[in-house]
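**Sequence, structure tokens**
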Amino acid sequence: MNLPASPAPSSQPVASVRRPISLFRKLVFSLLTCCLFFLLLEALLWGAGVRQLRDVRDPFVGFTPGAPLFTRAGDLYETTDVRRTYFNPQTFQAVKPAGSKRIFCLGGSTTYGHPWDDATSYPRWLREMLNQQNAGASWEVVNCGGISYASYRLAWLTDELLQYQPDVLIVHTGHNEFLEDRSWSGFRDLSPAVRAFAGFAGRLRTTTLLDQALGGSRREKPGQPVLREEVDPLLDRSAGPASYQRDDERAKMVVQHLEHSLQKICRVGRAAGVQVILVLPGSNLRDFAPFRSDFSQQGFAGSLKVTELLRQAEQLQQQKQPEQAWALLQQAVAADPRYAESAWRAGVAAAELGHCEKALQLFRQARDEDICPLRATQPILDAITRVSQQEQVPLVDFAAILDANGLQKRGCAVPGDEGFLDHVHPTIDMHRDLAVALGQQLQQLQLVAADVDFPQRARQIEPAILATLDAPRQAVGLITVAQVLSWAGKNTEALKLAEQAEQLDPQNVEVLSQLGRLYEKAGRLPDARRILEQAVALGPDNPWALYRLARLHMRDSQWSTALELLERSRQHTTTAQPSAFRAVLFRSLSQCCEQLGDLEKASVYAATAASQ
């Protein structure tokens, strides 16, 4: 049987068939390659110490570069001269001694020690307690509290302080967040998607590298406000609390900015091996009415109803019928929950009747609905707590310390005058208690020996600290608080403090000048003239005393005498005086000249007033 012959093997190789790679796979491979490249680049930049863009630039505001807080002077760093308007004079070793520990206390005027200074502040108490009979490490506790400084300025300041090898940063902030005018118009206009992308980009070190290559630190973002080197409070350029308007969207942005600032401080501190401690601030809820109240959008009828209920409640209180007044005040709060004054007055009534929990709720409502929010609101307090939890840094609850002090002294866990000098500035005793709590927190972090008894040490150093506050210094502090109270419309309380200040230092021209002004506001014109004449006799070159005495003469149509005093005030007025004062001074000069028939001079002064 013949089989078919096998085909002869071919001498040509068989070509393999290759399938083309799909476009989808090419895109996936390209994307993976790019991701691996950027991940490697991010790792290299992290190793090189490049920071995330969100920790290099504030996405909300820019800052005008200025002088550093500290400059070197021989073997020490000391507070730069031009910064001493807002900060205490402080010094520390330029070369950190071996075995020593360094703490920077950041915050606003409470940290500064207002209405006095570092001498009675919690940083001073902590400094003395840590170094008292301490056989171990020496401690440098530096007061970096800046008057009117908010969290975003503290975050900016942290970049400098990290150069000085701190071991601990203590951050006490929250009351000054609404103090400066920040519009965030450009930031508000961004869509949620763009904001989300910007947030993601801010976490990349690659973005920081690109930003620096493009000169980002020298460019201003369109629509981004740029803050001055030092604080420019809105209140200093306006008519006080009346300049504030309700703006819920702005309030949300304020909280976001605070949260960003605190997160930055925690992140950069951790990256530098520095322990960060946050402080939850407290405020005077019981004895300080809202700075400004406004009705919600309920029309004239709604506001009229609330006003009438408040009037009736006041009458009942005068008639010693507190329960009936309390019932009407609750109705007023229910009629318009956003009218802060109603909530505060209802809180006072509730506290006096012993309804402590309800009182605390109402006082917090009044604080949060204040149109001029110069006390940390609940969203701000919540944000501070949230950052502490997210960044895993300790939180010292100063608000709880103040609540406990109120409970001990007045039977309700509601902070008031027993712990405060005004709306936010604690008494010296409360500075002491905060310092004790901070010392105990350092013990928990094992930075201080567990056997150190901080309450006992506080008692031992108390006489020395109080001795630094002599009568003239006490008078200055009291008159400073009186100015704040008067500015807030609390002239009765301010007058009491001013009279105390005058008893402590009857030769102080500023004390007498302020007391005379408050007597005038109270309608006690003979007392006002007597005190202001004393002030002018003691300080013939004091422009404020001269101006205030002149205003009294103007009230009595004594135009020649008033003009003479105003001219003397003008001669001693410098550009250091607030522009608002210069404006009213020149307007008064214009008015006197007009009354005396010198119209040409009156016109010149009126033009000068308008230019201030």
The first helix runs from residue 23 to 47. The radius of gyration is 31 Å. The domain at 299-368 is CATH 1.25.40.10 (Serine Threonine Protein Phosphatase 5, Tetratricopeptide repeat).
